[in-house]
Amino acid sequence: GAFVTLLGAAVAAAGGPSGAGREILRAFDLLLANHTPGVGGVVEDSFLGLLTVCTVYSLWRSSLIPAPVGNPIARKSRTKASWLHVISGGGALALGLYGVVLERVYRESPGWTWMWVSSALFLTNALTYGPLMQIFKASKEGKYAMKLGYSFVASFQGVVIIAWSAQPDAPDWMYWAVMPFWFFSIAKLWESTEFVLALVPDSEEKQRGEKESLTLMDRFTAGSKRRLGRMTPDAATLTYVSLNAFAAVFDNAYMAVYTALGPEQFWHTSQAFNDADFHLRLVKGTTGSLTIALLIFISTLGWRKQMSMDLAIWLNVILGSCGPWIVLFWHKLIDPSEDWFPQFVFDPAYAYHPLWQTASAVAVAQIS
């Protein structure tokens, strides 16, 4: 089938079986040679190793690789929308893994074609999950977590464009291409806030059933608790909710600073003083998308009893909640001397000005 055809094409591109064998040996040598020394290298390899294993497993369980090579889960929907969701999801996982391997093994960044195609696949996958929610047998909390996850995936495509807009050959319109992603960024901020509100304990009056004496907080959190259902404040849930809430706040601040400064000023500190961060920016957004997409698929396996739910929950925490933060601080694993948040560190020797001042200055110059 198609899988065999693609595999054959890959072998042919490597110069046949012997060429493919030599490239595998070369890749293994580079994997060892490019290992980051110290604790940072251990964390990097452990996380990226888990990410690789989970990606390969998810592709193996997807409908894109048929039996007997794969072990696809039974599909309950065969509509055009569901096929689009499956194909875009599988393609996004494969291209996301390609970017991770290229960075970790070869310490190289992918090109423009990879960026546009992978981003389009992740965005398509995030926008086509709706019809599947009607047949997805999960709790209210599980379904809302899937909605939040896809909001993160969609918004991360804005982060990808932010990163690539600083490339020397990036067109000016890429700045404006980021702006529609504010919708998804604000959506995930609200959705993550709903999880926080749903965990707020009921007042004593509500616990006693005194509806006439409900507090303001009871009334304020009622909608969120109704939409998400009863949530248990265990360690996994509290970790998931708190890290997602912090991530949503951070991402909106990230978008705000970029919107105000534009690509050149936004990336100045990173480009001038944080080499690892400036290099890794080209794969960070896609790798973050990969972690979230994986947790959603793995959660689906858990709800469908294709995987231990306990394992799915903790993989959810590691990949979905901790994963994006590890990706964000990836540059610190490579070079601990770099800034934690380079985009929020401003160079006193650099003349910053908000983007609207730049626009007005350009307009005045054109008139004069």
Task: Write up what this structure looks like.
With 368 residues, this protein is mainly α. Helix 4 (80-106) runs antiparallel to helix 5. It has 16 helices and no strands.
List the helices and strands and how they pair.
Layout: H1 2-13, H2 16-33, H3 38-61, H4 80-106, H5 112-127, H6 140-164, H7 174-178, H8 182-198, H9 204-207, H10 216-228, H11 235-266, H12 268-273, H13 275-303, H14 309-328, H15 330-334, H16 355-367
Concise synopsis of the structure shown:
By secondary structure, this protein is mainly α.
Beta strand count: 0
Task: Give the fraction of residues assigned to helices.
Answer: over 70%
Q: What fraction of residues sit in β-strands?
A: under 5%
Derived structural class: mainly alpha
Return the average pLDDT rounded to an integer: 88
The ordered H/E elements are HHHHHHHHHHHHHHHH
Radius of gyration: 22 Å
Number of helices: 16
Low-confidence stretches: none
The major beta sheet can be summarized as: none
